[in-house]
Amino acid sequence: MVTKLARGALPVVILLALTGLAGLAGARIYAEGPLLPLLLGAAAASILLSTLLRPLPNWTVAPVSMLALGGYTLLAVQLTMRGDADATLMSAYLDAARNALPRLLTAAVPIEAAPDTVLVPIVAVWLAGLLGAELAGRGGRLLFGALPPTVAYAAALVLAGPNAQPALWQPLAYAAVCAVGLALTARQRTDAPVLTGDQPSPAKDRVFQLRAIGGAAAGLAAMLAVAVAAGPLVFGGVAKEPHDPRTAVVPPREDALDANPLIRISGWAAQPTQHLLDAELPADMPIRLAVLSEYDGVTWKVGADYRNAGKVLPSVTGPATTGKSSVVKQSYTVAELDGGLVPAVSTPNRIDNLRVAFDSRSGTLFKADRLATGQKYQVESVYTKPDVNLLSVADVPSGDAYARYLSVGSTLPTDLVNMANHITENNPGAYAKAYALQGFLAEHYKFNPTAASGHALPNLQFFLTKTVAEGGRQGTSEQFAASFAVLGRMMGLPTRVVVGFKGRSGKHPVLASDATAWPEVLFTGVGWVSFDPMPQDQNTKPLEDDYTPPPPTKTPSVPPSQVTQSPLASTAAPATGVGSAAEPVLTAPVLLMLSGVLLFGLLVVGALVVGLLRRSRTGRRLRSGTPSERVLGAWLEVRDAIRLAGHTPPPHLTASEIALYASLIPVRRRSARHGEPLPALGPLAELVNVVGFAPGLLGEAEARLAVEQAVAYVRELRGRRSLFNRVAWSLSIRPLLWKPSRPVVAEPGMSHATPHA
């Protein structure tokens, strides 16, 4: 009883382990929280519920399990709600059900456990446990029962992509649990093949051995072929970064004002007393609203990839500023600031009381459903001051990865080209160029809060080159920051524009007059460094004192032809030489397809060979030889059918007892013939007994009767199996490997030898 109970519980334990490992693989990209316990609970609940419902009809399991899943997901939503006063349990549940998958794929890693980010993994683990328990429990096949957890495990790996740390022990543990489970739950069969008649000759025994060796060699050859074909693909992908499925999903988008908040500077400057928000800071420091990196000669754009985030924000993946860092805690209350961009000191790593999306490249925040008046939130940032001692010798990075920070449009005005060349004279170093550009703008241009908005190349050309009488050489921080960034890019400096506010120590209101924009330059080994090209006062020097536009005889440090016009770096391969032809390359998808085709071809060929050998042997048994040999051949076909049905008779049974045993074999498949008994084998068993002690008494009529009974029994027994089992029956190689070699013994009441099963 204990052994039977242990055998019944073992598949459940194996499935619990496999489904739990699948949940553990998916939880790696989540922040610490309730997700892992919820996934383990979903695995246990689905498998145990299916096990408890096994005595009931099949159709009752799915509805009951789905009702339980609904209650469990409702509990998960309740546990992961963030205390939003405006959200009820049902509204949060319905919102999560509608948006679970897109929000999961647009969430920043590490993902915080929220109703809309835990729903998909919980449902996936529950379904994997349910299907696995049904296949392993009711179907009696742990191999098939392990498939749903394996699919869930693979889906977890795909979801994690390159965003989780490698955990080699998990796949090893998964494979070990599968192997142990399959080994311990394998059906124990009494393989004592019996053949009535005389002991086979040594020649037949050698044929059997050669056949077994040939089958093993064919299987080994197939495995080696697959290893040779797939080996380079597998090992070649070890060092490659996994594909991130989030790249195929469009993240939340900003409106026009949020995509280019630089155009809001002039509007805020015109209403300096507008109350935008309240801030509480530990010291004077700038508050960032947005980072604009893309410029096409007309418009500066944010170009961010915002991903839904939780309280704990991901690390910044782009170039980070190096230097002395300090943790800065801030509190904000939104007043009249509208839009979706969320102010914070750089670089935030935690936010409370506000659900935001995060751009890991720039470290900025975004709220898809816009800020609301009265909204309060707290931010914790890591504020870094660059090491000024490194700036004098620092260089700037180059390459396709930084092309978006050097793009200035397709056509550069000659006036700006000449001005960029003038500023770079006698300033060979990167920092020297940036510092000279900052001083040039601060000394010769005035701040005018009433200046018109605009930062396209014609606007900047007017601002930089026209006289004060003509309306030039005066503007807001929009023109100063944009001019610095564009001229800097023409000098070969990677630049970007930041829009934000001047923050002060303590709790204070942030007004529209505090809005400003400033440029940043990227230096190798230092990171992004802020510059302030704004004039300190209105006493500026005439531009003509230091610079008179010369005839255009020189080109900028970075010629326009070398500047990438697209914000995305070019990934095109270098062109081949004239007259050369590109050689075909076997890419990973092609190799994978070829390996799959090869494996499928080997399987098809192997199945055809097994089928032909099986049919050939059946024909020899039933239609070749003497009547006694055909009777024995018919008996062998019956015995093979019994073993293929999974019911090997005990070795001590005689032929007559095996005939009775064969008539009592149960079948699982329900059909019109389910209640009818299998064809009787009593006459065939009597003929087999006759062969054992008087083989010469049998004639053609008896041989035909034996063949007819054997064929009828095998056809009926096979027909009552499921479709899958019927196909497996026809393609099984096991009958070719069974060794029929057993002497005959005497049956009680007989004076001569009787074939023993």
Key structural traits:
5-stranded antiparallel β-sheet, 4-stranded antiparallel β-sheet, 4 domains, disordered C terminus, 757 residues, 12% strand, Bact_TGase-like, C8orf32 fold, single chain, alpha+beta
Description:
Keywords: Hydrolase, Membrane, Protease, Transmembrane, Transmembrane helix. Residues 548-559 have a biased composition (Pro residues). The protein is of the alpha+beta class and 757 residues long. The chain has four domains: 2-188, no CATH class; 271-385, no CATH class; 392-499 and 517-562, C8orf32 fold; 605-754, no CATH class. Helix 1 runs antiparallel to helix 8 (169-184). It is elongated and about 130 Å long.
Helical proportion? 40-55%
Total number of beta strands: 19
Indicate the overall shape: elongated
Main sheet overview: 5 strands, antiparallel
What is the helix tally?
23
Structural class: alpha+beta
Counting structural domains, the number is 4
Terminus-to-terminus distance:
30 Å
Strand portion: 5-15%
Strand order of the largest sheet: 8-11-6-1-15
Please give the radius of gyration in angstroms: 39 Å
Q: Mean pLDDT, rounded to whole units?
A: 79
Low-confidence stretches: 188-200, 552-587, 741-757
Multimerization state: single chain
